[in-house]
Amino acid sequence: MKRYGAISIIGEPNVGKSTLINALVGEKVSAVTHKAQTTRARSYGLMSSEEDQVLIVDTPGFNKRPGGLNHFLHEEILSSVHGVDVVVGLLSFSSAKEEKILPTLNLLESLSNPYVLLVNKFDQQNEASARFWSEFEKNHKNLEYISALKNPVGVKTKLLRLIEPYLHAVDEHPYGQDEYTLNPLKMMASELIRETCMEWLHKEIPYELAVRVLRLEDKKSLTAIDAQILVTLERHRPIVLGRGGQMIKKIGTQSRKKIEALVGRKLLLNLQVKVEPNWFLDERTRREVGFGSIV
Questions:
Q1: What SS3 state is found at 23?
Q2: Are residues 67 and 160 located together in one domain of the fold?
Q3: H-helix segments, the chain
Q4: What is the pTM of this model?
Q5: Domain membership of residue 83 as a residue range
Q6: Which residues pair with 268 in a beta bridge?
Q7: Same structural domain, 37 and 143
Q8: Does residue 256 belong to any structural domain of this protein?
Q9: In this structure, what CATH number is given to the domain that contains residue 30?
Q10: In whole angstroms, what is the distance from residue 58 CA to residue 191 CA?
């Protein structure tokens, strides 16, 4: 019997959502850096076996601060749970205090979807945290402990054990066995460029930075991409460019290598830096940088 289901993963920034989805899928479908809120738009991965297929929706880490970009990130999270069979709340083992995990639990309780819990970063345990989670699991039975980064083996088994009651029988899986994402190439290229910006500029540029792909064209011997790096303040533009254009060159070189590994062919990448104050207030721009559903 074949089974299928859709899940959405939600949690606070830096609990390891993108690392988890990449481990489950076996390929890189979500941007990963140590900077909070690297994931901006929802990302889709597929975990498939002969029997089971699960569509996984990665979401931005939710931020409790009101206003600005956070408002639209919160809307993105709420929109991502529509139509899924179960929501996976991801907590961090190192957040062994009730006030640290309460925002995630409150959000899960406010949803109409059923939910289960994964506690990530199990490798960071100590006596105090082990004692906290031992008490916590007495009132939360649908829970498993994982370490998506240090020990991804077994993560799939633990997740399937939690979500098995919510999978439903199908004659055929909706997607092919060899498919691992529904993300269009344009979105994945944008996220890889933004990931690289976060790696190089995490101390200088706030998380409002975004990437808009203007052109993606497959030519005979290569793929050509023109993209804009959007910043909200004029003083951020020279930081992204760097002295004599050295920083934008580094970002371009590293981004090109990542995208070439993704598409398996040579890439011509042209990057520009543009100042667009409050770009996130414009609906068209939000969609151009990846906000909104693609399925």
A1: helix
A2: yes
A3: 17-25, 68-80, 98-110, 127-136, 155-163, 185-201, 237-241, 246-263, 283-288
A4: 0.78
A5: 2-170
A6: 224
A7: yes
A8: yes
A9: 3.40.50.300
A10: 13
